[in-house]
Each structure stands twice: as C-alpha cells, then as structure tokens.
Amino acid sequence: MRWLAAPALALAVGAPVCSRASVSQEAAVVDHAADARALDRIVVENYAYLDRFIGGVPPRSAKLDAMREAVSDRRTLLAYAEAVMASLADHHAITGSSFGDSWAVIPSYADLWIVRVGDAYLVDAVRAGSKAEAKGIASGDRLVGVGDVPVDRAIDAYWAEIGLQAGDADRDAFAARVLAAGRRDRPRDLSFARDGVTRRLTLATLYREVAKRPPVTVSKNNGSTVIAVNNALGDDGTIAAFDAAMANIDRDAPVEIDLADTPSGGNTVIARAILGWFVTKPSGYQVHALPSEQRRTGIARQWIEQVLPRAGKHHRGPVTVRVGRWTGSMGEGLAIGFDTIGARVIGDRMAGLLGAVYDFRLPSSGLVVKLPAERLMAMDGTPREAFTPRSP
C-alpha cells in the first residue's frame, strides 16, 4: 500500500534518461517544493468537478500536507502528485510520469470492473479476451480479498495511506477497482466468491501483455459489417484504416461500429473523422463547458462541438454502435455523438470517465499532471459520464 515504494522513477515514453550529473544539476535549479504548492493551486483552479466534494473543496488530510511539506526532489514530488490525483477518486486524473510500481491506469490497464452494491464489491464486467476471463471470473462474482487482506480492510488501508477515510460508496468502488487492477510491476493476488465458494487467484499485470493490433478489425455479423476499433482512437492511422473499411461497404448496408475496446481514449480529430461518414450537414455532437474560466472571470463559458460531412464519404445505411465498460473518454464522446445523430447505441454502461483532460505542466520541474478541466455533455445536456446505452 506504499506511495513511495518505487526504487526508481519511470519517465513517460520518449522522455530523456537523466544522468547522475544532470539530476544533481536539476536539484540545484528546480524548486520542487514550490511545484508541490503549485499543484494544489492547479487542482483548485482547473479541476472541472469540484462539486463532487463537500463545499467544492478537494479532499485534504494531515498526511497529504506532510507529504507536500516533505517534497524536496523529483521523486518526492511525483509521489505527492500521485497521492493528490488518487485523492480525487477520478480515473481520469493521473500523472504524466510514474514509478515502476505505480498503480495501474484504469480502464486502460484493468480487466475487471468492480462496483459496490451494499457492502459487497461485485464484478460488474470482465474484459473480453483477458487473463481474468480465462481464469473464469465472471460478472456477479464478489471481490473478497486482496492478498491476505479482506477487501474492505484493503480499501481502508488504501485511503489511510494518504490520510483519508473509506466509507463513501463511489470512492470505495474507485479504490476497489484500483486494487483489482494492481501495481504495474507485479501479479495480482485476488480472492473471489461465488455461490459460497471462494477462489484465490494470481492474475498477471496488464502492463506485461500489450499486444500490437491494427487500428481497426473488420468482420461480419448477421448481415452487418462490424468495424471494431482496437483501442486506437489516438492513432492517426485509424482514420485511413476506418476510411478503407467503409469504402468496401455498400452505402445502404447496415454497419456496426464496435467501441467496446477503446479504454485509452483518443482525440476529437479521429472521432470527427469517423462521425463525418454519417452526417449530411454540420451537426452538434457534444457540449463543452470550462468551469475554470467561470471561476476566474465570473462568466460561464460553454460551446457546442460540431461534426462536418466529409467530401465523398457518406454512409446512408443503418448504424449500430456497441459500447461497454472499456469504452472510455473519446470512445464515450463518439457514443454520445452517434446517439445524437440517430445511431442505435447498445451495450453495457461505459467507463464513465469525467470530462476532457488537459495537461498541466508544473512550472519549475516540468512534471505533468492530467486533469479533467472541461465538463462534457450530450446535446440534450446529459453529462457524458451519465449516458446509458440501450440494452443489446
């Protein structure tokens, strides 16, 4: 349950590796303690969902304060930043860098979706094709243990590590999902109960199982062409791959767009490129609001993002969109956009990730934190995270 357990700092992909000399030089010029204080201001000024907290104030504790006061280098700054992000209980609030043993990012590196029902922590969904599915874990199973510790005590310990208390259902479900996803550098030791029988299982971390796949996969299902997006809504190659798939489909034929494996989100360029196949005029597909501007100026800011038709690319036939718990962020934006333009969106509840994420770079160290800074809504005002698809 440690926040400072990592032996080394693992920087984001593509970041330079620092030598001992450069680390010493950085320590001489970087004010890490000032960045810790700046992080607190960034959250208060920019986090779009402060209304989730009592009085609109992010959770604080004596332990968090002590961690902030102890920040003296990049390692302790990152540990504090991870703790602050965890305190928000928001899977969309993360750090841009990480330790080797940081908690897994959810839903990208999770294969179990845990919800709290009463006092129980139930498996709500299992990721298709995962090791968890191969081990026979199924929806309705109860998560009852993490290692040698009962799950409720493990959740207590998770929050106690940063001086916060368990007891809120939504926040405790967040912690249960984190514990079920585990740390990045080791297998998970989890116990599940079903029909009075408890099984203790070892599950590999998903950080060891990243497979290379094409951006989209095309198949047939009951007369429909299915285009599955393989967690590639941030890959520019997805546009060409999707266009090529659509070009081989009769314009009046039924199409199913499978977004059930898009947990890592993506960008609006790719989303608009996909949606552009299915509109004949400029059409709104989601509403944005920027609370930070209202906090700063007293004037609310809200706008509609549109999708435009794409020249020579239009599909007239019926469209079905499939989603699930591993439809996250931009995948969720696509779902509400498709719903707005009249497509049939089916499947299970989505990840419910909050808002649009901005990168905030701490002024002295350059460490990046990622925070939901925009609120996102469907055209009818439904918060994106509250959108409910139709049953299959």
Features:
392 residues; Pdz3 Domain; 3 domains; 5-stranded mixed β-sheet; 29% helix
Structure notes:
With 392 residues, the chain is an alpha+beta fold. The protein folds into three domains: 9-99, no CATH class; 112-208, Pdz3 Domain; 216-386, Alpha-Beta Complex (2-enoyl-CoA Hydratase, Chain A, domain 1). The protein contains eleven helices and 18 strands. It has helices at 20-29, 32-46, 62-70, 74-87, 131-134, 151-160, 169-181, 237-247, 268-275, 291-297, 330-340; strands at residues 9-10, 94-95, 98-99, 112-117, 120-126, 142-146, 149-150, 188-194, 197-203, 216-221, 224-229, 255-258, 283-289, 302-307, 319-323, 344-347, 356-361, 368-377. The strands form five sheets. Strands 2, 13, 14, 17 and 18 form a five-stranded antiparallel sheet that branches. A five-stranded mixed sheet has the order 10-11-12-15-16, covered by helices on one side. A four-stranded antiparallel sheet has the order 7-6-8-9. Helix 2 (32-46) packs parallel to helix 4, helix 3 packs antiparallel against helix 4 (74-87) and helix 6 packs across helix 7 (169-181). The two termini are 39 Å apart.
